[in-house]
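Possible regression after last week's pipeline update?

I re-ran a chain I had predicted before the update to compare outputs. Posting the input and the new output here so someone can diff against the archived version. Not blocking, just want to make sure nothing changed silently.
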Amino acid sequence: MASAWLLQALFTTVLSNEILQARQAGTHDKFLLANTTSGTLRGRVDSGLPVPVARFAGIPYAKAPTGPLRFKAPASPDKWTGVRDALVFGDECLQRVAANDAFRDPNAPHSEDCLYLNVYTPTKRTSSAPLPVMVFIHGGGYNSGSGSSYDASYVASKGVVFVTINYRLDLFGFLSTEDDIMPGNYGMLDQVAALKWVKNNIASFGGDPNLVTIVGQSAGSASVSLLTLSPLAKGLFHRAIMESGSALSPWAVEYPGNRMTHRIAARLISNAVNCNDLNNSSALLSCLQKVDANTLLKASLGITRAVQATLINVPRVETTFGFLPDKPTALLSRGQFSHVDTLRGFNSDEFGGIIPALAGPQPVTREVAKQIWRGQLAQFTDIDREKVLKSMEATFLTGKTTTDAIQRGTLDGVDYFVFGAPMVSELEKVVSKAPEKKHYLYQFNYRPSFSKAPQWMSALHGQEMIFWFDAQIKLITDKGNGIPTLNDRLVSLEIMGRWTNFAKTGNPTSTIPNAQATWNQYRSGAPNYLLINSASEAKRLYSPRVATDFYRKVLDSLQGPSSNSITPIVG
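New output (post-update):
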């Protein structure tokens, strides 16, 4: 082992006004220094990629939200002296541990001290200009997941600085007594704090703070959608990518029509941990801040299962912090959102891997279809559930008599309800109010070579993520997926290329031979989209009115007549 570090410059250009330096140990590990507003960080360089990438892991962007900071807005992180190692990931936030997640490390530590982010930056480039920045917000239903689950090294090697973040989950991120004492939305404020950290520090990592694209999947996609609506996030990003999630999704926010409100959930959880002063929010907060964190999480998970109301700890409309000052439909109708370039879409068979009855040996009958749909309508009151169920049956099963047709209509009904119709409804409003920006829609239709779903299904929920973060990485192949085929690799290159090119230029172009289809912008009266497959195709929605008319009725049940502001698409 060498007795001293050997100082060497890894970059051939100065990336910003900050000085980035590397040190090389006798073990041939390479390290990089970066200055931040809190102090100096040391990251490790991965030289095994086509373009070497430095990873800075476990960077605190806020103080630990523990004790008196629990159920509060995030506070600025503490500063340090000397050099802080950023070589290992910070703890994941306390959460429901999901099984069979393609990206999750089952041995990752969890704690309440979890407000960390990770930066991946390429160390070789052809220009001294700062690189575009992409900030990724993970999914997991607001109650699971972490930024550290995703290795962004391969994406960063495409010429972007990539940031992944943690944010508070479950009750720690969203518990609310619906007043000024516990307004909720702490997890969303974490996301805003992370974006502020990026704005103030990313230049030190070679990134351009004036060219930031926020990216999210599932609940992360709904988060991106909500960030575009939030006045607190205005000016912190310049483009947005949304994969399978919208602010209008039935699970994305608390709706007035939900049978389980935040206030009721907070009272049930508090009572379960012996915080019984339910009519005094200040006393309740003080009590809850003293309860063991794991005890709180266990109580929240137990209540969620007991009430069978899908998600009970989600973002909500509130004006105390002002993260979401009005209903998403109202903000969209008034054009009160960040006018930025957007790229968004969903997978062809999102719920195909989630509903066992669809993959089982028994045929799906109309009665089975309605049972499946009832399971996805748990947040509604009994009256509204039956009303929505009739609308779903009329929209997706009318005229279908064969087993295959009923099966297809059943899955389409769930997918449109949860993902497709909310996404397209929001996009139509965004395009009408922000026509000066570029907007793109996709449908990911590629069936992976390693898919274990029935043959009649294509892309399931979250499968595009495997290709977005490179289908060849060991993390993916070790999950039983095997070695990717040529088509797998080409689709992966297409996704990485189009997404990073969108972040760079606002235009999702591709240089892959089988992916030369022009991705036309989505415009009012011209609902263009890209069907992503082994050979992608430029397409146009042929019957969008069916889905959006149906979803307008869903919104009517969830929040009342004001949802009529969502205009159906003209096909």
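Follow-up from reviewer: compared with the archived run. The chain is about 35% helix and 15% strand. Marking as no regression found.
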